[in-house]
Fold this sequence. Notes:
Blueprint: E1 11-12, E2 26-34, E3 40-49, E4 56-57, E5 63-64, E6 66-75, E7 78-88, E8 101-109, E9 113-123, E10 131-139, E11 147-148, E12 152-159, E13 167-168, E14 171-175, E15 180-181, E16 187-195, E17 206-215, E18 221-232, E19 236-244, E20 251-260, E21 266-276, H1 285-288, H2 301-310, H3 317-326, H4 332-344, H5 350-368, H6 379-387, E22 392-396, E23 416-421, E24 431-436, E25 445-449, H7 460-464, H8 476-483
Parallel strand pairs: 15-21
Antiparallel strand pairs: 1-8, 2-3, 3-8, 4-5, 6-7, 6-9, 9-10, 11-16, 12-14, 12-16, 13-14, 16-19, 17-18, 17-20, 20-21, 22-23, 23-24, 24-25
Helix pairs in contact: 2-4, 4-5, 5-6
Amino acid sequence: MKKIILSVIFAVLLGVGNLQAQNAMALFSYSTFNNPAESPYVETYISFNAWHFKFVPTNDGKYQATIEMTVIANQSDSIVYAKRYNLQSPAIDNPENNMFSFLDVRRFALPNGLYNLQIIMKDKNADTDPVEVLQDIEVYYPENEASVSSLQIIASVKPTETENMISRNGYDMEPYVDSYIPKEMDLLNFYYEVYNANNVVKENDTFLTVAYIEVEETGKRLNFTLKGERTVSKPIIFKYSTLDISQLPSGNYNLVVELRTRNNEIFGHTKYTFQRSNPNVQIHTDDMFAYGGTFVTDIDEKDLDYYINTLYATASAKEKDFIFNEAQNASLEEKQAFFYKFWLARSDSPKNEWIKYRKWVEYTDKHFSKGNVKGYKTDRGRVYLQYGPPTYILDEKSKVSTRNFQNIGHIHYLPYQMWFYQHIPGDNPKRAFVFFDEFRIGDYYLLHSNAKGETQDMFWERRLSGGQLEENVQAEAGIQFERGY
């Protein structure tokens, strides 16, 4: 693709998937791709709700809204890319006919690296505060290694009449910006690109591209969504595919694409997280299995109540709703059914999976309980149950730096523990958690982590040092965190 910056603006009558966000000014998403001949690049997609903006008369008697856009990509303390432009909505005949959405697509080159993307949007015709989007982005396409682009969800496809920013291989592919997939969408259409597959599989030989959907909270693959396609190995491959999601019930999921050799070895993968609403498809416990005579019927009801509460750390949103709102008033049979279904969803051997988890619960209660607070309710207990035992724990009760820093002298840290995980399912390798005892009374709270979806505090080491360190100054605890021990 050409290394230029253009915009595509067109009215899109979005489906009901956006109804849950109808009060939002805009929806934002992004993808990363690679142009091996030039540079990797980022594409941003913003779907604006027109009724949030003020439409003013134009010279030809119509009405139009104008949005001042500022896009900045920062790396560390440096601005790598910056662009300011005026985005104009489609022109309309009547300013009251503004119940539609329009799309802005931008593309700009970024070398491999970690970036913070800042987008500021301001209605130029109204005295309103600007709206800001902040997004961390990783661009990583090794020059001589196989890799896969982002998965771009596609709302519609039609043959290209005039080349534009959503044109790919002779078709206009309109991005679907929302991560919410409504029940009306029976098909999940997606586009991605594969680079340097010929460095793994000989050019013009074939390999398998596998697409499927997994439950986000558990990583359990839904085999009824599995789709494999033979693909010819080339330096760059453009793929458009579709999965039938008509029988996919409500929940949180990952769309996963894997590249596999003929020996079934994975040499590339990518995923896209989405939320599905499909209340017409219900999975009834009694229809799925009979739990009578299984291990759940051997658990005393009082113990079962306790064990159900311990599941909260690793439960899905729907399961948490049952635990928090329904379990207290549920019958014994309903609780038994829930408990069995919970473990069946995570393993073909639910009893063995539960026994392993129960040992973790016993460990957290023994080592992390404080007063009347059981270990599984603490931050350390929650992380232990959610991700399993860490690969390594660094326990510092009275850490003092081995050297002076600036004019501060030695750094005296509050008591802390660093937990290191070599691998967390659904996340990048080498994730870490920092827990600290802020008041030196044995209560450890999660201060900072680089794991997906966890608490992040960019000035965590300053808090850990009791304010001794200045902001953005890294000392020994920060070095420990980065190197992983």
